[in-house]
């Protein structure tokens, strides 16, 4: 992974990982100088890097020298999303069918929800309510999860994206 400055097209960051394919990346800016990058791998691990940019310096990241490694998924990471209100929280989903919420400073898994209907492919932490997370999955349904309940909410909060089949008699 390489990150370039838009203004001067200069390489600012180069990431060299040794744990295999990087499936997902999520970036969070804490302030003008400090950024956090979460990299989800095919092996199920998530590496967290704290980056402090210097004007004229290229930063090289190595997965073996990251700030934190979060372990808990059995299969590859498919999506990551930072909490909009709590800067130390990250949510991940994986091909193992689990949604996991992490405290990145402690490395602790805060919550783990098993999606029993297949793989999870995407996740988004609500910008309006930090208690709500949306997921997209193999069954073509967008689901809303309330972290306070730690269970899937009722069906009116699910959006079925499956194509509706028309009968032969209908236009």
How would you describe this structure to a colleague?
By secondary structure, this protein is mostly beta strands. Helix content is 0%, strand content 50%. The protein contains no helices and 16 strands. The strands form four sheets. Strands 12, 13, 14, 15 and 16 form a five-stranded antiparallel sheet that branches. Strands 3-4-5-7 form a four-stranded antiparallel sheet, with no helix packed on it. The termini are far apart.
Short description:
With 171 residues, the chain is mainly beta. It has strands at 2-4, 11-16, 22-29, 34-41, 46-52, 59-62, 68-70, 77-82, 89-94, 98-103, 108-114, 120-125, 132-137, 141-146, 151-152, 159-160. The protein is built from no helices and 16 strands.
Throw out a few tags for this protein.
single chain; 171 residues; mainly beta; 5-stranded antiparallel β-sheet; 4-stranded antiparallel β-sheet; 16 strands; 50% strand; globular
Q: Which residue ranges are poorly predicted, with pLDDT under 50 across at least 5 consecutive positions?
A: 151-159, 164-168
Report helical residue fraction. under 10%
Structural class: mainly beta
Mean pLDDT: 78
Q: What portion of the residues fall into strands of 2 or more residues?
A: over 45%
Largest sheet: 5 strands, antiparallel
Number of strands: 16
- State the helix count: 0
